[in-house]
Amino acid sequence: MRIMMIGTGYVGLVSGTCFADFGHHVTCVDKDKSKIDALLEGRIPIFEPGLDALVETNVAAGRLDFTLDLASVLPEADAVFIAVGTPTRRGDGHADLQYVYAAAEEMAPLLRDGAVVVDKSTVPVGTGDEVEAIIRKARPDLEFSVASNPEFLREGAAIDDFKRPDRVVIGVNDTHAEEVLQEIYRPLTRNESPILSMSRRAAELTKYAANAFLATKISFINEIADLCEKVGADVSDVAKGIGTDSRIGARFLQPGPGYGGSCFPKDTLALLKTGEEYGAALQIVRSVVSVNDDRKRAMGQKVIDALGSETQGKTVALLGLTFKANTDDMRDSPAIDIVAALQGAGITVRAYDPKGMETSRAVINDLVYCENSYDAMTGADAAVIVTEWDAFRALDLGKAKQLLNRPLLVDLRNLYSRTDVEKQGFEYVAVGR
Q1: Phi, psi at residue 235, to the nearest 5°?
Q2: 21 partner at 20 to 30 Å CA-CA among 2, 72, 94, 428?
Q3: How far is CA 431 from the centre of its chain?
Q4: Does the pLDDT at position 309 exceed 90?
Q5: What are the distances in angstroms from CA 193 to CA 27, 162, 164, 276?
Q6: What's the CA gap between 30 and 32, in Å, rounded?
Q7: 189: pLDDT confidence band, cut at 50, 70 and 90?
Q8: SS3 letters for the chain?
Q9: How far is CA 298 from its chain centroid?
């Protein structure tokens, strides 16, 4: 199949590259000349483990290419995937669909008969209807289909998620669209990955419902962690006790500083707005958003409390800036709120992140960026683990103790055991313990 991917961001580049690796011919299109130039030169504009090698392999094989010129390739496409950003619209919390609709308007004159337009971007219920209406208005006699194919990719594990998915969701309103998408994803049937076919609107809602449910698990275990601290229980034991129940499952039951990233924050807000439009209260989702907002601020206060009453002039070593490990994504990272709280208390923040330093500079001011974990800890009054990078899982605590002004470790990801840390002469503050 000849596939066009509109957008070379996280979703578009990963999806397009993996489709090419399946054997399809994929052209990725973007309006950002710097991105396309970088890709043509073999430079990947995002960090995702394994993506650079996979892009190189498929470009060399002639299955993957990149262009700024939509008109030169779109008329030959069997399927056109829209993978543009749908950020939260400033001021009202709705998903901003201007880029989706602009893509529909631009492609309309160029589509061939039988083409399938696929929303890969995360879009609210009814977006596919509007995309279809835009194209139909421009080309009333065109034979085409519009489908929904939401992505379920975890940053840091996206390639494996794409190639070994729990399921593939396709939302279609006609048999032709279903047949085309079934053929595109046919290589996955060898892995026995289920392809779930449903209506277009059901697929659009499935993506939001999945992310809202996972966000709910995170906020739930964070609240239980707070209770554990007050009653003298260990949240790790509680999480294991409930996570081994097959009805609940162990994933997303690790307490921490709250969720962030490109999906959960904006998708929960967009789902709330959809609920408001259709008269559905969604009170659980509303509580999840509120709990997570409070959580990020509370983690900053947790560090301040650990330092003691006099914080003015103190220094903290912040280990981790990105919202999770194995990504350079700073969107809605808990580190943003934590740094704001610390700086508000007169604390200087020395920070290190294996991949997030450059992206951090665009969103956090007045940080002292360091070369590594030990550089960050030099002269600091506490070390604070914010992101669960592997580089922070086996720190040389003896060396750290020599570098720190005070041997205080605030572990917001519970990477260490209290016994091991305290044996090294540290004060240890964790989450839910």
Answers
A1: -65, -25
A2: 72
A3: 23
A4: no
A5: 25, 10, 7, 35
A6: 5
A7: confident
A8: CEEEEECCCHHHHHHHHHHHHHCCEEEEECCCHHHHHHHHCCCCCCCCCCHHHHHHHHHHCCCEEEECCHHHHHHHCCEEEECCCCCECCCCCCECCHHHHHHHHHHHHHCCCCEEEEECCCCCCCHHHHHHHHHHHHCCCCCEEEEECCCCCCCCCHHHHHHCCCCEEEECCCHHHHHHHHHHCHHHHHHCCCEEEECHHHHHHHHHHHHHHHHHHHHHHHHHHHHHHHHCCCHHHHHHHHHCCCCCCCCCCCCCCCCCCCCHHHHHHHHHHHHHHHCCCCHHHHHHHHHHHHHHHHHHHHHHHHHCCCCCCCEEEEECCCCCCCCCCCCCCHHHHHHHHHHHCCCEEEEECCCCHHHHHCCCCCCEECCCHHHHHCCCCEEEECCCCHHHCCCCHHHHHHHCCCCEEEECCCCCCHHHHHHCCCEEECCCC
A9: 22
CB 80 within 8 A of CB 74: yes
Say how far residue 175 (Cα) sits from the centre of its chain.
Answer: 32
Query: What is each CA distance from 220 to 152, 264, 270, in whole angstroms?
Result: 21, 14, 20
Q: Classify domain 2-198 by CATH number.
A: 3.40.50.720
pLDDT tens digits for 360-408? 999 999 999 999 999 999 999 999 999 999 999 999 999 999 999 999 9
Instruction: Dump pLDDT digits (tens) for 219-258.
Output: 999 999 999 999 999 999 999 999 999 999 999 999 999 9
Helix axes 334-344, 283-307, angle to 10 degrees: 40
pLDDT at residue 91 above 80?
A: no
**Which two tokens mark 430?**
């964790």
Q: Give the catalytic positions in this structure.
A: 263
Condensed to tens digits (0 to 9), the pLDDT of residues 332-344 reads 999 999 999 999 9
Give me the chain's average pLDDT, please.
96
Location of structure tokens 């047949």? 179
**Burial letters for 48-66: b for 16+ Cβ neighbours within 10 Å, e otherwise?**
beebeebbeebbeeebbbb
Which one-letter amino acid corresponds to residue 351? A
Residue 190 reports pLDDT greater than 90: no
Q: CATH 3.40.50.720 in the chain, residues?
A: 2-198, 289-429
**What is the pLDDT averaged over residues 105-118?**
97
Give the residue carrying structure tokens 């604390």.
347
